Structures
1.
Amino acid sequence: MKKDVVVLNCGSSSVKFAIIDATSGEAQMTGLAESLGNQDASVTVKYKGEKQKIALSENAMHAEALEEISRIIAKTGVEPVAVGHRVVHGGEKFKQAVQIDESVEQAIQECAAMAPLHNPANLTGILTAKTAYPSLPHVAVFDTAFFQSMPQHAYLYALPRALYRDHAIRRYGFHGTSHKYILDTTASELNKSVDETTIISAHLGNGCSVTAVVKGKAVDTSLGFTPLEGLVMGTRCGDIDPSLPTVLQQKLGKNAEEINKLLNTESGLLGISELSNDCRALEEAAEQGHEGAIIALEIFCYRLAKYIGGYMVATPDLDAIVFTGGIGENSSLIREKTLGYFSHLGVKLDADKNLDKRFGAQGEITAADSPIACWVIPTNEEWVIAQQAAQFA
Ligand code: ADP
């Protein structure tokens, strides 16, 4: 039976929205309200193959955008059964999706200290969407919830324990809905139940993370207290020597906030290449011999391989290594370079299959006799949010 869910992802100046059938995953409509708070605030909608851009009033904010979005949805005749909200940080409180009431709103607010750029915007989205859809269940789906199964030895930092007790400083993980989708889809591709499936999934987009899942439960992940830890990302540095921020403050005469910005927005692929944060652009430049692009891609793949290799200690009876996200789904080069580090373990890529798996194609990319199977599975975070929200309809 069809169960249409409105899926919302509210940022500080944007609202990404979709109507997803929770049963089939089909997206009936997708759209984006952007430049909220600016002169050129607008909503762009894709529906039945047609794209339409609607101007909002000058400096329009979330309330006007959501009013317009609900008007657009109403015109289609679709009757949604629930609204699913992406919420970035659920702390330790939320281990799964929940129907939103005042206490949930308050808890999301309390977690805002750990995700100051995201949770307040997510909450604004929730409050305004409740006005637009007062009679539907509103459900919060947390990026962090999937990782609440991690054992203490994976989530505690080697810092004084009091920092965990008193300030909740620990590793949380992000991209949970994507890793959950990859787990469910891999299980179904391998004809196994989710709780029998063990994978290492690599979500490689502008943000990047690797997750180890044992028998359907996340046991480790590379993003930590914030989405800065772990892999090299588009503009984020990932792992560095923890003393560097202090050294950089002294050397550059910058304050803590400026150094934080440098690590989050001027580093990663962009920082190393001195060219771009965009993997595709770097691949093109590397082909032309651009030295910065070549070394940026090299570091990206080596760090990724180190994480995947590290997670092999946590994943006995590994069923598959799975690539997803814009880079994971499209870059046969990054997959080839990364998996090249495992050739001495026998991992054997099938070059044709690897080249085929681009632009939305799904399937295995390793040879039949490879001891570890590797897959490409395009992610679908909106579908996970729709499925979880529909449970409350
Ligand atoms: P976000 O994390 O913002 O959702 P995406 O998952 O869309 O980002 O991933 C964006 C990244 O995917 C960019 O680095 C982009 O260059 C890369 N990408 C997209 N298509 C290709 C391609 N054909 N080859 C290499 N990289 C690609």
2.
Amino acid sequence: MNTRIIAHLDLDAFFASVEEREHEWLAGKPIVVGADPQEGKGRGVVSTANYKARAYGIYSAMPISKAWQLAEVARKQGKPPAVFLGTNLRRYGEVSRNIMAIIRNHVSVVEEASIDEAYFDISVSRNYAAVENICRQIKEEIREKEKLTCSIGIGPNKLIAKIASDMQKPDGLTRVEEKDAEKFLEPLPLRKIPGIGPKTELLFAKRGIAYVRDLKRSPQEELESLLGKWGKALYHKIRGQDDSPVEENYEIKSIGAEETFSQDTLDPALLLESIEKMCRDILKRFRKDKCTSFRTVAIKVRFSDFKTISRAHTLDYPARKLDVLRFEALKLFMPFLDKRENPHKKLIRLVGVRMEKLE
Ligand code: TTP
Ligand code: MG
């Protein structure tokens, strides 16, 4: 029998760690990377915060104004003031490529899952101790060459590896062998299972189900009737079963842009102009990255109450023109200007456009 052993690597507080290593004066300080806080009036969000800033309650995707408030509270308590920095995506992209190259020095099949995370299949080594050894070498090389720390999870499949990598952040290494996988999941809160977001969490919380072990009492049919196809997948996931392959992907997964308006708005001229501009920017990057086609166009709308809706459409042919991108983005967006997607005429705070399924 061929034992599958998969590892998942995720860098610690990635954007903030890159900034910290590159600017001596930041060493040891709480750091928040993201939109300009404008003394608490800023309207964007936090991209990430380092662990010192997380101790103030500051997290990814939080409104930057909230992060500013929390930093102020900490400062008034005499704690070190947080430093707010803008993002430097090009730089993080370069560092990401260096990290992926280091991983490839040690293993052959690597799936770059996002800018700061990768799965790799090291089944060939066939034994967990040997795999752990390779992972420690990777961590060491990243620390030496890139002055960054990461956390790695090792498990019998991608699901377990991913959850394990998050267990001992930062600078962790968590090994969960196949025989222990099911037990490993049981005490975890449902949110730890990838795909379970706030909505599903709430749905189960209402039924008194908070932990994986509680959910295991639900028969497969029940999960299916609640959640459809995803219910079936979930039934297997909470038992530690997942057979999705580690897939090499050299191509960038998507190109996107978003804009937070300086005031919430429902002014069609302003919104459409913003979409037009984002489409043009995206197409420029599409050309620069030497992409030849895209298949999916997606948009995101965040209302003034922070409710956020995404809509996507996949074409049945590969496209490459601005006209197509613009047409599809507008077709997805127009319903947000009227009853179809916005019956209460809520003002819009942010709009995003993204192209996916790139070649
Ligand atoms: P994550 O790996 O989710 O976060 P992280 O690396 O900052 O921290 P952790 O130690 O918990 O792994 O995301 C990687 C980078 O992606 C992160 O540094 C910034 C960016 N990012 C955003 O811009 N917005 C987001 O909402 C999230 C979650 C991440
Ligand atoms: Mg990370």
